[in-house]
Amino acid sequence: MRDEQIHEAIAILNEAVKAWVSPAVTIVATQGHDPFKVLVSCILSLRTRDQTTAEASSRLFALADTPQKMAHLTVAEIEQAIYPVGFYRVKAEQIHAISQSLCDLYQGAVPEDLETLLTFKGVGRKTANLVVTLGFGKPGICVDIHVHRICNRWGYVKTNTPEQTEFALRKKLPDQYWIIINDLLVTFGQNQCTPVSPRCSTCPLYQLCDRVGVSKSR
DNA sequence: AAAACGGGGGC
DNA sequence: GCCCCAGTTTT
């Protein structure tokens, strides 16, 4: 895909996602934009399906929906609430530790800047950028495995890691798409441009896509 | 029964 | 760079 074709690709994607029910970022649809909830839900979502994440978030936030309340729960209580999300033990410890840090060091508020967010254990670039964009409505590029895979399949970027994709997109992608790119591509990635056997024969972006590294498709 | 799965930390 | 973390869904 050539650089100037990104506008056309995004326009096609905007139409295509209307056909799919599940919102890409279930977090916001079910839990709202509160930065603390976005942060916690995003941690819960790692290697875990949307619906499982949403249900676990609801159970946890019923017990504690602020850093103050969360810090007063025990790790065991958090574990019990979030089971069966993947890696529930590590996640429970991370959520507890982050909540305590927020109370002790940041007056119980979630920091708004990327660099501070990245200092927390359990918060990497994907999570931090999601908090910045969804939680605070500020520009950011949240690159998960779908964004990384699809941008490389298109041939729009040529990178080896999601972090490299984030930096490449930050340079190339027009500002107006920064916040929506994750939402669009996650939905597209779940329904059409799947990791294994993508549905190329029915893809609305077939002509724009280089299909880099696609061996099997349907 | 395998493979696949919406990252991140520790080393 | 490599290995670990876990339960669920898809093939």
Description:
- Its cofactor is [4Fe-4S] cluster.
- Belongs to the Nth/MutY family.
- One of its GO terms (molecular function) is DNA-(apurinic or apyrimidinic site) endonuclease activity.
- This is Endonuclease III.
- Residues 44-191 form the HhH-GPD domain.
- By secondary structure, the chain is an all-alpha fold.
- It has two domains: 3-22 and 141-202; 34-123, Endonuclease III, domain 1, CATH 1.10.340.30.
- It is 56% helix and 0% strand.
- The chain is built from twelve helices and no strands.
- The chain has helices spanning 6-16, 26-31, 35-45, 50-63, 67-72, 75-82, 88-105, 114-117, 125-135, 145-154, 162-172, 180-191.
- Helix 1 packs across helix 12 (180-191), helix 3 crosses helix 4 (50-63) and helix 6 packs across helix 7 (88-105).
- The protein is elongated and about 55 Å long.
- The model has no long low-confidence stretch (mean pLDDT 94).
- The protein binds a DNA duplex (11 and 11 nucleotides) through helix 3, helix 4, helix 7, helix 9 and helix 10.
List its traits.
glycosidase, Endonuclease III, domain 1, single chain, DNA-binding, mainly alpha, 218 residues, 2 domains, elongated, 12 helices, lyase
Topology:
Blueprint: H1 6-16, H2 26-31, H3 35-45, H4 50-63, H5 67-72, H6 75-82, H7 88-105, H8 114-117, H9 125-135, H10 145-154, H11 162-172, H12 180-191
The structure holds a DNA duplex (11 and 11 nucleotides).
